[in-house]
Amino acid sequence: MPAFHRNNQFTLQSSTRAGFTLVELLVVISILAILVVMTVTSINFALSTDLTRSASRQVQSYLAGARDRAIYAKAPRGVRFILDPNNPTAVTSMVYIAPSPHWEQGIIRMERTDSSPSDGVADSPEIFYVRGDGTDWATLYLRGMIQENARIKIPGDDSGTWYVIDVNGSGVSGGTELFRLTTAYRDAGTSEPDEVVAFSPGSGPSTYLLELPPVVLSGVEPTLLPNNTGIDLDRSLLPASWRPPVDVDHVDLGPDGSPGKHSIDDDSSGGADDNGELLWPGTDDYRLYSSQLDLMFSPRGSILGSEAGSGKIHFVIDTLENIQSSWQRNTDYAEGAVVQLPARGIYEYMPYDRTYICTTAGTSGGNAAVFTSTAPGEARDTGSKFTTDGTVEWEVLLNTTPSLLTIFTRTGSVNAYPMAFDVRTNTPPNVFHYAETGETAK
Predict the structure, then answer these.
(1) CA dist list (Å): 244 to 40, 83, 167, 290
(2) Which bin fits 217, alpha (ψ -120 to 50), beta or left (φ > 0)?
(3) Are residues 150 and 177 in the same domain?
(4) Whether the Cβ atoms of residue 421 and residue 398 lie closer than 8 Å to each other
(5) What is the CA radius of gyration of the chain?
(6) Which structural domain range is residue 268 located in?
(7) Mean pLDDT, residues 300-305
(8) CA distances in angstroms from 174 to 118, 138, 212, listed in the order given
(9) 347 and 427 together in one domain
(10) 318 shares its domain with 422
(11) Residue 187 · residue 127 · CB < 8 Å
């Protein structure tokens, strides 16, 4: 019995030592929870980066495909970038396009300017207007087929010259078949300089060719970018024709009388008004981007039209969550909300490599300049916290998901690379250095 009793005691004591206390279990569970969160975060981060790089490669391949089609067909071919139906600042699909046949219906006559109220006397001997008869331009305009920077060839034969149309200054929007040219017609006319009709009967051009928007290639279906990715138009360097102007200012004043979050200006840049106050796009009467974002390649492989004017086009490709999280003025933000600085006016193109998380809920102010500060411990240093001119406090987070894709319009070459942050020097990247210099491309 004593021996058995001792053995029994030994067994009970050993069993007690092999167990865990409640505190020990809680510590282990907490450590496991932290590891799970870190793992999931790392996986999501890696997936987001892989998605944007995959989307960048897809856009690059698609543009190269359009260029090859143009060279092979010995005729212009291009790509139409299609806006996301739920976000008018992001492109999520593409489709191949080809030029439309030129419109040449009806006849034309050239006119000089006769300002309103019309008195039948020309204001200047220069010829700026083209009046159509039976051309049906007003119907084309209503169908969206005559857009800003459209071109017209006068006369319509081999001796003609191409002119850019000032669509906003023309009469087609009111149903009148009248175009205003951005530059004066090359001939002085045969009538008296003060006569509105520039050419006497039987003289002057009567034919024309009107350039219409490209059409989708037959049998081609749109191609979607990888899920949850898109081209961030707000942070991209785009052709001017992709951002048509609006006619009126719209200023939405906040409770304190300052411009509200839907304040806009009439030059579509979202820059500053005459007083230097930043204006931001609204959603009511502001058309931020054209409905047709087209790039056409020539048979030589270069970009055609007004889109070639800038020399290069920069596309920023990011996740849709990042694209949709642009900071807005005079807006209530809850703790945990994540925003990016929208590229507007003087803040264009920067910063790409930072996002900001709300650590103290409140209402944002109207000054976005605090997000671009380079002072130590402010908006550029990862982990630092700062307050806008409202009551929101933000913490700076690193963002390495975007990719930059650049098109060199003179050659048609396309290059893509991820945006990176130099952790060794803790400095922001010059994200456009490669694209502007072509250094790596050499």
Answers:
(1) 43, 15, 11, 6
(2) beta
(3) yes
(4) yes
(5) 30
(6) 244-288
(7) 91
(8) 17, 8, 19
(9) yes
(10) yes
(11) yes
Cα 24 from Cα 409, distance rounded (Å): 65
Q: CA-CA distance, 18 to 418, in Å (whole number)?
A: 53
Which amino acid type is present at position 249?
A: D
Mean pLDDT of 284-313: 80
Q: Is residue 183 part of a domain?
A: yes
What are the residues facing 385 on neighbouring strands? 395
What are 179's strand-pairing partners? 130
What gap in Å lies between CA 431 and CA 421, rounded to an integer? 9
32-91 per-position pLDDT tens digit:
777 665 555 444 444 566 888 889 999 999 999 999 999 999 999 999 999 998 888 899
Structure tokens, 118: 């019309």
Q: Which of 117, 128, 84 is nearest to 229 (CA)?
A: 84
10 Å CB burial of residue 258 (0-12, 13-18, 19+) is: middle
Considering only CA atoms, which of 141, 139, 153 is closest in space to residue 209?
153
Residues 379 and 415 occupy one common structural domain: yes
Q: 288: part of which helix (H) or strand (E)?
A: none
Q: Is 114 left (phi over 0), alpha (psi -120 to 50) or beta?
A: beta
Asked if residue 378 and residue 234 are part of one domain, the reply reads yes
Same domain, 209 and 327: no
Extract the tokens encoding 149. 């920077």
| Pair 129, 179: CB distance under 8 Å | yes
Distance CA 245, CA 239 (A): 13
Pairwise CA distance, residues 126 & 186, whole Å: 9
Q: Tell me: do 413 and 302 sit in the same domain.
A: yes
pLDDT of residue 375: 67
Q: How many separate domains does the chain show? A: 3
Any domain includes 203: yes
Mean pLDDT over all residues of the chain? Answer: 77
Contact between 236 and 59 under an 8 Å Cβ cutoff? The reply is no
Is residue 221, in this structure, part of any structural domain at all? Answer: no
Q: What string of DSSP letters covers 124-142? A: -SSEEEEEEES--HHHHHH
DSSP letter string over 155-211? SSSTT-EEEEB-STTSSGGGT--EEEBSS--SS--SS-TT-SB-S-TT-S----EE-
Render pLDDT for 201-215 as a digit per residue (tens, 0 to 9): 889 999 999 999 999
User: How many of the other CB atoms lie within 10 Å of CB of 274?
Assistant: 6
Nearest Cα to Cα of residue 91 among 370, 358, 320:
320
Q: Is residue 218 part of a domain?
A: no
CA distances from 47 to 37, 226, 326 (A): 15, 12, 22
Domain match, 235 and 253 both: no
